[in-house]
Description:
Shape: elongated
Number of strands: 5
Radius of gyration: 32 Å
Helix content: 55-70%
Largest sheet: 5 strands, mixed
Structural class: mainly alpha
Amino acid sequence: xxxxxxxxxxxxxxxxxxxxxxxxxxxxxxxxxxxxxxxxxxxxxxxxxxxxxxxxxxxxxxxxxxxxxxxxxxxxxxxxxxxxxxxxxxxxxxxxxxxxxxxxxxxxxxxxxxxxxxxxxxxxxxxxxxxxxxxxxxxxxxxxxxxxxxxxxxxxxxxxxxxxxxxxxxxxxxxxxxxxxxxxxxxxxxxxxxxxxxxxxxxxxxxxxxxxxxxxxxxxxxxxxxxxxxxxxxxxxxxxxxxxxxxxxxxxxxxxxxxxxxxxxxxxxxxxxxxxxxxxxxxxxxxxxxxxxxxxxxxxxxxxxxxxxxxxxxxxxxxxxxxxxxxxxxxxxxxxxxxxxxxxxxxxxxxxxxxxxxxxxxxxxxxxxxxxxxxxxxxxxxxxxxxxxxxxxxxxxxxxxxxxxxxxxxxxxxxxxxxxxxxxxxxxxxxxxxxxxxxxxxxxxxxxxxxxxxxxxxxxxxxxxxxxxxxxxxxxxxxxxxxxxxxxxxxxxxxxxxxxxxxxxxxxxxxxxxxxxxxxxxxxxxxxxxxxxxxxxxxxxxxxxxxxxxxxxxxxxxxxxxxxxxxxxxxxxxxxxxxxxxxxxxxxxxxxxxxxxxxxxxxxxxxxxxxxxxxxxxxxxxxxxxxxxxxxxxxxxxxxxxxxxxxxxxxxxxxxxxxxxxxxxxxxxxxxxxxxxxxxxxxxxxxxxxxxxxxxxxxxxxxxxxxxxxxxxxxxxxxxxxxxxxxxxxxxxxxxxxxxxxxxxxxxxxxxxxxxxxxxxxxxxxxxxxxxxxxxxxxxxxxxxxxxxxxxxxxxxxxxxxxxxxxxxxxxxxxxxxxxxxxxxxxxxxxxxxxxxxxxxxxxxxxxxxxxxxxxxxxxxxxxxxxxxxxxxxxxxxxxxxxxxxxxx
Length: 889
């Protein structure tokens, strides 16, 4: 019931004269903004906030409106006080309903108790609710029994709730309300045999009637909604979706009949449809259903929980926490809000904080398997295998065939790239609950990220057979079909396998394979791979897959089509999006720089068993790019240092995971690289290696710093910040230097305008000495040294190189350098930079022509052969793309 209680707040919707109760008003647009935000979640990005990041729209959060603050309900004239109380409760105005009940002079005592008990429970006064619902005169009423069981479940007394629902079903064997809720709590407590019996009863009573007599045979929206939910659980547990064509549409039709035909105001049917759609990864349609719920009852806890879970799935922590806050406004002690909070903290990788909340919940709800599972997941995120095993044993003492806990643990281990551990947990979940599509999908995605694509296909095809309607399964299988068609190229020394789209592979794969082999030994040696693995190579071949579309790349890396970066390392596997200008890409970019960055991740993850601190793997990867500071980072870092806005060590990882400002993630990358540089400068690279070894041993960050560097995190940060102050002091942005530079620049620009190039040169040289991290003086000097009046090709190249080294998306500097070297007769360097122009823009025909020209001059037969083969293929591909209006470059 806890995990799937979509009718928990439902009450009988008939007035005092047994007429259907309609007229629940639409609510304020503010609640709908929350649901509308969920619709837009697919556009939210988790970006490397650098030149490759998409700018996500700022959060436009509309203040929530509790039902009590909405305009008063309008009732039909014939409504009595009990009718009004019922309507208020059904619309989520629980406190108003309680007040209205105090005016009720007469009516069915059981119904009054049910409404009062439900309102007390939902607003958090569960002790009072129990007192109301245990009145001997009404205690055997089926609705009273079911509502009392819900109170007990909220209090964590799951076994007592199950016993009470058994009593309700035994005393009311023809009640679908009792049967369905007994089935749900039986599932939650691991009594699958009883659950199947209850759902079988629903199937036997209703399936033939629905399929043979048709929807017209049904008149009660609540009965039809429970029927749909019960049939779904029956066919899910019996794995019947594979054998009944169109079953998905049949179930959805049941819910539609309830809310579209029988009772257009019956929001629990919309909620049931939403849960059904979420289970099949159809979030777009699910949100539409939840918006319909919000129009009737904006305070429904389960609806808010679903919205929060969907937001969390997109890493939208702000909206997740807004849902949690809203739930607690309704019920300050809301159990579902606490569960969502734990999941929110786990998603942020805040294992200690999540564990603290989960531990408090376990004290209150020791019988709650879901809470215990989440506590185990907290330990899994810390890679504390012993603690995980202890909780799993505790769960199995209550539910010997439990699958959900193993799924929760596997999910966290998978997020940590602990592939072997995660796979073992997923397999147990699948074995124990073969109908659990999420577990099969999780295992399939894990195998995909792991590079075990044949195993992924086996798992996902089985999932597709069991549930042909799950969209995530379907998308994964499409992805595997695509990757299977991608030709594979093994690099010359066998350290890499490159795969790309068949149309693009001839232009990309060989270049990438050759480049990677040129950096392989260098990067491995830098991180002393041979000391750990006995050779200057990783234990497994590294694979690189280049996807032509960004959404395909994203599904490959995260299972969702919206991660906002161009490259991602998943252990031995690296995925990239095609470096070209086209629909659904990020445009051209220096794929060589990205590959060096991502391969550094692959190495540091391997040598730490995926336990490296987030900031450190990113900092080392940026540092290993071996490029000067990027121009756009200069003002950001300058401001952060001057205004004391650099992150502390505790804040740094969260700046990647949950940036508060648009620049925070970019700043986190830059600061992380600086920290690594500072450690190597103050101590040495051996200390970096010792820190990596500490992380591999599973030590916490504060322990690693103390043992290796001899400083706690606070003292380290203080010294590091001083180092940063000294660093930016050399950049020439202090007031005195800035005034000097401004005056020099003004004079120098006038000289260029007047074509007095020779006179301008020494002024710009002064400027570049004063302001070394400013692009403008390098641009001006490169221009000046190429003019006849002051021609100096080596100096022109010097400044062009400085510009090229941080030009990640424009190959103009590389091509210019190549031509200058060509004209000077330095064909080796000319060929090098012609090749680097291809690295930045591999589908630039001019870059390939330039390399071919230089290769012929240098008699570089392999390069000539390569370009003579590639250029005709590129010509045809460009023509094809132009015809498709996807014109690159």
